[in-house]
Design brief:
- This protein is mainly alpha-helical.
- The protein folds into 2 domains: about 210 residues, HUPs (Rossmann fold); about 90 residues, Tyrosyl-Transfer RNA Synthetase, CATH 1.10.240.
- It is built from 15 helices and 5 strands.
- The protein binds tryptophan.
- The site of tryptophan (TRP) has 12 residues, from β1, α8 and β4.
Length: about 325
């Protein structure tokens, strides 16, 4: 049987290669398999938990959705919506919150990290972030949630809430499975791509010449390979070039052509970077062409989100009606 796949995306910043290879590619695969019902949404309310600018939020949201559409999410095959378009999610957050011990929320690693990051902005929304996330997941009764490893404790909490609700009020929720998105894409400096303070990302909208320039000047290869006639160690010492070849250069993980050439000192780091950017260009150019077509189509994007929101709302409202009923809440 097919899964009910669900994942949320925060409306911050620009989409980079790490988001694409780590997450969006999986979303598109689930969608295109034709076997699953897919829900993908922008978690705009989650974005409010950290300092932000309202005008930026409005603007980023549409731009992000254009990126996702250009990357292959298809409103005919997936339900694409914005969290706030479905107010029943917020209502479900309140009900689930009644089953959630505060002590557990205080111990969630992402919460602790944000308390450290903004000690003067420890708001209630930050604490209940995972409960809102549980409502996102349980609203459409998702069975499979693809997430990055930083989100694992949050999905665990959603699973616990589903079980707690079922135990207390009778079977209502499927306990969702989590799929960890394991692909790690190193940024130019070798650290995780997109870390907020590091200027290490390759944005997927970036013109290819700019990507080339960034790899040329900032890409870090094997530092111990001081001259081209010395063999390199692509697997252990190349920080941000070979690991990306493995992800984007067709056939490399089968043939190991580039790795072998590096270890035999037959290809230098400059040429290796050029080949990497050629692979990236082949992958990104069709996306960039579609993205240009969508650039001026704000109304189309709004329409997609409006229709997606309506469709999601029908399904989530049904769950919330069931939850109210089981919890003894009557709408008069
Ligand atoms: N918190 C997630 C992130 O920062 C985004 C998110 C919100 C999400 N709700 C979700 C992911 C529900 C999966 C399921 O990446």
């Amino acid at each position: 049987m097919g899964e009910i796949v669900l994942s949320g995306i925060r409306a911050t910043g620009k989409l980079h290669l790490g988001n694409f290879l780590g997450a969006v590619q999986n979303f598109v695969r689930f969608q295109n398999s034709g076997e699953h019902r897919c829900f993908y949404f922008v978690a705009d309310q989650h974005t409010l938990t950290e300092p932000y600018d309202p005008e930026d939020l409005r603007q980023y949201l549409l731009e992000m959705v254009k990126d996702y559409l250009a990357l292959g999410l298809d409103p005919e095959r997936s339900t694409l919506y914005v969290q706030s378009s479905v107010p029943e999610i917020t209502e479900l957050t309140l009900y689930l919150g009644m089953l959630q011990p505060v002590g557990e929320l205080l111990n969630i690693p992402t919460y602790k990290e944000l308390v450290r990051k903004h000690p003067d902005n420890v708001n209630h929304g930050l604490l209940t972030y995972p409960v809102l996330m549980a409502a996102d997941i349980l609203g459409p009764k998702a069975t499979l949630v693809p997430v990055g490893s930083d989100q694992v404790p949050n999905v665990e909490l959603a699973r616990d809430l589903a079980k707690r609700f079922n135990n207390r009020f009778g079977h209502t929720f499927v306990v969702p499975e989590m799929m960890r998105q394991m692909v790690k894409v190193p940024g130019l400096d070798g650290g995780k791509m997109g870390k907020s303070d590091a200027d290490n990302a390759i944005e997927i909208k970036m013109p290819i010449p700019e990507i080339r320039q960034r790899y040329r000047t900032k890409g870090i290869t094997d530092k111990e390979r001081t001259t081209m006639d010395k063999p390199g160690d692509p697997y252990n010492r190349c920080m941000s070039v070979y690991p990306v070849h493995e992800l984007v250069t067709p056939g490399e993980t089968d043939t190991r052509e580039i790795a072998k050439a590096c270890m035999a000192a037959e290809i230098g780091c400059v040429a290796c970077k050029e080949r990497l950017v050629d692979s990236l260009a082949a992958m990104l150019e069709p996306f960039q062409a579609r993205r240009v077509e969508l650039a001026g189509k704000d109304d189309y994007v709004r329409e997609v989100l409006h229709e997606g929101g309506k469709a999601a709302r029908v399904i989530i409202a049904e769950t919330v009606a069931e939850v109210r009923d089981k919890m003894g809440i009557v709408l008069y």
